[in-house]
Design brief:
Length: 332
């Protein structure tokens, strides 16, 4: 025991310093409760950019803090844990280049490819996308971003989440395929997906949906679009974390609902009649790394004039990644 009352100290430091604490919904409850700004990935990026404090302490995974640093470079962004989203790690710039080559080798000219990267990717991948005239998207705006991309008349290369790419293709009545999975002819498809995925959201299965429907007739099923397309098709609703919260809030209190997304968020939703759509606890290991002690230490480092875990981005990468992020933010 250190004897430090972390909650009280965090409040004291937040009052004293010009700092905003941001937290994603998947953070541990005690960390989430200490935040000034919360939201899904898009809301967090927008709110942090609009915030007037010079310091942001971001509780989430690496790409989130990195994105804030890129769109608001004047800010000092610290992360109590620079934990990396496992899906974001599935693609780097060489895999991105290989995906472009896959398409050009099969007869699609590079100028006819419009890349879209899910925000769950490293800044270096976003920069590649930005350089090629592409955009970033999140789970809450993917429909609009893909729609805008298609208006260019080009083929969409969607990285890294194959599920998100396929789910929106289905929703929009488009043809998609996944590089490395069966026949994937980029000339035949509208959206060509990289073969990445979120292991947490792969835990939810069609069998889970069937189990809950059988056990509680009339139950609603709500899932994140990082789930497998078969699961999304079997569900009543799919949406970003904020959209899932609004959907569950809109239901009558007696309406049962099973939710397919990270445990900390589902557990925080209304306690009665809400179920986790899995028999396995769907925890995101990296989101769960940040503790109240880490948050305290990070805030204290600002008070001590020795900031820790500061997010920095190479200026060349930041320039092009910002293009891709700003193109997304320009879409309402
Ligand atoms: P949201 O943008 O919906 O909050 O999703 C972030 C994420 O990482 C989901 O796994
Ligand atoms: Fe990444 Fe999945 Fe964790 Fe979301 S839940 S941060 S996509 S590993």
């Amino acid at each position: 025991m250190t004897g430090i009352d972390y909650k009280a100290e965090i409040q004291r430091l937040k009052k004293k310093l010009k700092v905003t604490v941001a937290a994603h919904y998947y953070q541990r409850d005690e960390v989430f409760e200490a935040a000034d700004i919360t939201g899904d990935s898009l809301e967090l990026a927008r709110k942090c950019k609009a915030d007037s404090n010079p310091w942001v302490v971001f509780c989430g995974v690496g790409f989130m803090g990195q994105s804030v640093k890129i769109i608001a470079p004047q800010k000092r962004v610290l992360m109590p844990k620079i934990a990396c989203c496992a899906m974001a790690r599935m693609i780097d710039i060489s895999y991105f280049d290989d995906s472009v080559k896959y398409m050009t080798d099969r007869g699609v000219a590079k100028e006819d490819i419009l890349p879209i990267t899910y925000i769950n990717s490293d800044a270096s991948v976003k920069a590649k996308v930005g350089e090629m005239g592409g955009m970033v998207c999140t789970s809450s705006n993917a429909f609009k971003i893909i729609e805008k991309g298609l208006a260019s008349g080009k083929k969409i290369l969607f990285v890294p989440d194959r599920c998100l790419g396929q789910n929106f293709a289905i929703q929009m009545g488009l043809k998609s395929c996944v590089i490395g999975e069966g026949e994937c002819d980029p000339k035949e498809a509208d959206i060509i997906c990289f073969n990445g995925f979120c292991s947490v959201h792969q835990l939810f299965t069609v069998e889970d949906v069937e189990f809950y429907r059988k056990r509680y007739p009339g139950i609603k099923i709500a899932v994140h679009p990082e789930c497998d397309p078969k699961v999304v098709l079997a569900a009543d609703f799919s949406g970003s974390t904020s959209q899932l919260i609004r959907y569950v809030d809109s239901l009558a209190p007696e309406q049962k609902v099973a939710v397919g997304t990270e445990y900390n968020l589902v557990n925080r939703m209304r306690k009665k009649n809400t179920y986790v759509l899995s028999s396995t606890k769907p925890e995101c290991p990296t989101m769960n790394e940040t503790t109240l002690e880490d948050l305290y230490k990070t805030l204290k480092s600002i008070e001590d004039d020795a900031p820790i875990n500061e997010v920095t981005v190479d200026p060349h990468i930041a320039k092009y990644a910002n293009l891709a992020l700003e193109r997304m933010l320009a879409v309402e």
